[in-house]
UniProtKB/TrEMBL annotation:
Keywords: Chaperone, Coiled coil, Cytoplasm, Stress response
The protein, known as: Protein GrpE
Any single biological process term in GO: protein folding
Major localization class: cytoplasm
Native source organism of the sequence: Streptomyces afghaniensis 772
Compartments it resides in: Cytoplasm
Region: Disordered, residue numbers: 1-45, 190-219
């Protein structure tokens, strides 16, 4: 006889009705967990936040770029103004200095006209004139040129039969300019056409034309 030993009966897992134990295991493995189901929703929210941050960064970059470009333009304008003002101040300073030297240059000119510019005085005078020229000083005013009130100052006036317009017939004091800026007009004596001279010349011109054409036509 064989005795049954109590407590050694094999216990089988509870299996639902109509299903085997092999069917239960794949379902458990295939079913996603709660965390895995929630993951896609969390990733989408994170992507939206990143896109929003990227848009904000792009907007801030555009604003900073525009600010930088505006500052660069303002700085360039400032540099141009400073350079223009520096040049203007330099020109004014040179003009003031040369204006103070004009009486000395006038004395040198008169000494040259009278033959007194000799020896060491001549060398110093020529050196001074050369230095003034290097600084941009230009002398103007010649006899026979038309009178221009913007650069000439008439100190003497007369009439002359041999001029057809108001003309500078004598330079009493030369004029000076620096570039296009006149620092002293030329002081001159001017002559105007003699009254009636234009009428006489017109009649003479008409007579000369008649002679060339064979005389006036007979009526």
């Amino acid at each position: 006889m064989t005795e049954e030993t109590p407590g050694f009966d094999e216990q089988q897992p509870d299996v639902p009705s109509g299903a085997t134990s092999d069917d239960a295991e794949p379902k458990a493995a295939d079913s996603p967990s709660t965390e895995e189901q929630a993951a896609p929703a969390g990733d989408t929210g994170q992507d939206v936040a990143l896109v929003a941050q990227l848009d904000q960064a792009r907007t801030a970059l555009s604003e900073r770029t525009a600010d930088l470009q505006r500052l660069q333009a303002e700085f360039q304008n400032y540099r141009r103004r400073v350079e223009r003002d520096r040049i203007a101040v330099k020109e004014i300073a040179i003009a003031n200095l040369l204006t103070e030297l004009l009486p000395v240059l006038d004395d040198i000119g008169r000494a040259r006209e009278h033959g007194e510019l000799v020896g060491g005085f001549k060398s110093v005078a020529e050196s001074l004139e050369s230095t003034a020229a290097k600084m941009g000083l230009q002398q103007f005013g010649k006899e026979g040129e038309p009178f221009d009130p913007t650069i000439h100052e008439a100190l003497m006036h007369s009439y002359a039969p041999d001029v057809t317009e108001t003309t500078c017939v004598a330079i009493l004091q030369p004029g000076y300019r620096i570039g296009e800026r006149t620092i002293r007009p030329a002081r001159v004596a001017v002559a105007e056409p003699q009254p009636g001279a234009q009428t006489v010349k017109a009649d003479e011109s008409a007579e000369a034309d008649d002679k060339e054409s064979g005389g006036p036509e007979e009526g």
